[in-house]
Amino acid sequence: MSGLLRKFWIEPPVRAVMLLTALMLAVLAGGTAFLLYDMRQREIEYARSEISTLSRILAEQTARTLDGVAMALRGAQDRLSDSIGLQLELDSFPVQALLKARAEGLPQFSSMFVVNASGVVMNSTLLGTRPGFNEADRDYFATLVRRDEGLFVSQMYRRRFDGEWTFYLSARLVDAGGNFRGVVASAVVANYFESFYRRLDLRFGKQIQLINARGNLVASFPSDMDKVDQPVQGLPRLTAKAADPTGTIHVTETLAGENRFVAYHPVPRYPFLIGVAVDQDSALVSWPMTARPIVAGAGIVALLLLAASCGVVWSMRRRALMASALQDSEERLREMVESVMDAIVTIDEDLSVVLYNRAAEHMFGVPADEALGKPFDRLLAAESRGAYHAIVGRRRNSGETRNARRGRAELTARHADGREFPADTTFSSTEIQGRRFLTVVLRDLTERKRIETHLRETNRQLQELSTALQRVREDERAGIAREMHDELGQRLTAIKLELSWLGGRLPGERADLQDKVGVIKEQLNQTIASVRRITYELRPLILDDLGLRAAISWLTGDFSKRTGIELVLDLDDDEPERGSAEATTLFRVLQESLTNVTKYAQASTVWVAFHRDGDDWRLTVRDDGVGFVLDAASQAGFGLLGMRERIRLVQGTFAIHSTPGDGTTIDVTVPTGQ
């Protein structure tokens, strides 16, 4: 494709047509996708509505089925509890006739039977009198022995004589004195519900489960006898908040990577749950048939849009090509405008200079007539020519367009007098009428480098001065503290002893002198305490004599005693060398941190932890105070700056974390110096 033709494809009118076409295609694609998605969601909602309705209908049908069993069972209970029934033996023929009369015409249960007070089956509509089974271990009998539960629904059992899965509805029988006489029960075979489910016209892969109060499967469709009386996975909690207004709970399960929708509805008046499920593929079985015509129609419309856009673009081509030459000329003129601030050099594909402004003449000391047509790398120092050729080679071989991003590098240029100087160099490529040009913009960095070097040296000197001042300050503090402790402290103690000696020799009748001596001694005690406090604040001798752990214990104990703030200590046995810079730095940081807690934190508890962490000493101070917002202003205080500077001088790290209302934590690490 020629340069003019490539230029034509990025003309604003062409871009506008292409963007409009792309926008229309995007809207068409988005609308089609939204329509298909909406149809898909409607299909899913319809399927969920169907299983919800089916679960509700099946729950009501199951309740009516069990109502028939319950009515027959209560009728038999009433007849066996009236004056005539109480006179009948449970294994008598009249009792069997009564049971058969009550069970007649009710296909939902397989038998009705009575059990005596010992748990032995005495009469059954299916097995006759005295079949010989003992049911004392079954819950429908054992529960009613202890108390009257009304109508009791049992768990699942395999029937002893035929192995059928069965659950029982039972009611308590009592004699005229109210004593337990036995149980009348009805056996409901799970297969009855499965045969009922098979008769339903279930489409779209629906599945049905009847679940008892223990969460175990009673019956299902399709039938799966191996899972009967096994826990059903994924059962929801039946709460009013989880259910919809009809009492149905909807659950979406994922099995083998596919979604499955389940609607659970409780059976009214009975401890059962009906679950109706449908997998997503079955719910969407009709969706592809509806989606195909829509996708085909959208594709036809997209093709028509593309054809119309191509026609419009083709009609614009001739006019764009005619205007291209003039536009290229103007663009080249704009690219060649000289800059009065920076040196601008343009090179062609042969790496020869084709543009060389006055600033470049001044920077390199080479006139334009000597530079034009010559390789540009002759203006660079030898060590920078390799980097220059690498940059130019990447731009020549990468196929970048003329709107490619700019590259930037720092190269060393060479003046005509042989002087070399650093230059900030920016490279940008341009295509004009199919030819590629590379524009190089250079800025002399000599002055900036000189200033940077001066600043680095000044900072180094300031850091050395700061280190020396800190060392001198600590030495002076240590000297003053030791002089006060050794000289002033001992002299005050001696005065106190002499005063005590003098007070002991005063006449007993001079009570006024005795009181005056006591006052003077109290003032001496306060003075000694003040001298000791000032001494330890200047430089605690315990830090040099006993080490950092002892100094931390003394400082935190004194802090807690003075402020009333609870202080929790966590100290390692290991510690820095006594009197070392590391020990002094950590002690001063802790001292400043506790001072800040006293002034600002309003804390009730402070935690101080000191450990060795690998090759570092780690000190953490945390409080439960008011905290503050960490910003530039809050971190510019002299206390925090002083701590940061101390840590920096020993090549450590300093971190502070604080949130208003959530306390403040200062975390410091210092190298062990090993």
Kindly list the characteristics that best describe this protein.
alpha+beta, seven-stranded antiparallel β-sheet, 22 strands, 48% helix, kinase, two-component regulatory system, transmembrane, PAS
Description of the structure:
The chain is α+β, with helices and mostly antiparallel strands and 674 residues long. 48% of the residues lie in helices and 22% in strands. It contains 16 helices and 22 strands. The chain has helices at residues 3-8, 12-81, 93-103, 139-146, 190-198, 280-283, 287-335, 358-364, 368-371, 382-397, 446-504, 511-538, 541-545, 548-563, 581-601, 638-649; strands at 111-116, 121-124, 128-129, 152-153, 157-158, 165-174, 180-189, 207-212, 217-221, 249-255, 258-266, 272-279, 343-347, 353-356, 407-414, 420-432, 435-444, 566-571, 605-613, 616-623, 653-658, 664-671. The longest helix has 70 residues, at 12-81. The two termini are 69 Å apart.
Cα end-to-end separation: 69 Å
Q: Tell me the structural class.
A: alpha+beta
Count of runs of 4 or more consecutive helical residues: 16
Shape: flat
**Biggest β-sheet description:** 7 strands, antiparallel
Task: Tell me what portion of residues adopts beta-strand conformation.
Answer: 15-25%
Number of strands: 22
Model regions low in confidence, pLDDT < 50 over at least 5 residues: 401-405
Helix content: 40-55%
SSE order and pairing:
Layout: H1 3-8, H2 12-81, H3 93-103, E1 111-116, E2 121-124, E3 128-129, H4 139-146, E4 152-153, E5 157-158, E6 165-174, E7 180-189, H5 190-198, E8 207-212, E9 217-221, E10 249-255, E11 258-266, E12 272-279, H6 280-283, H7 287-335, E13 343-347, E14 353-356, H8 358-364, H9 368-371, H10 382-397, E15 407-414, E16 420-432, E17 435-444, H11 446-504, H12 511-538, H13 541-545, H14 548-563, E18 566-571, H15 581-601, E19 605-613, E20 616-623, H16 638-649, E21 653-658, E22 664-671
Parallel strand pairs: 18-19
Antiparallel strand pairs: 1-2, 1-7, 2-3, 4-6, 5-6, 6-7, 8-9, 8-12, 10-11, 11-12, 13-14, 13-17, 15-16, 16-17, 19-20, 20-22, 21-22
Subcellular location: Cell membrane
Domain PAS: 329-374
Domain Histidine kinase: 483-674
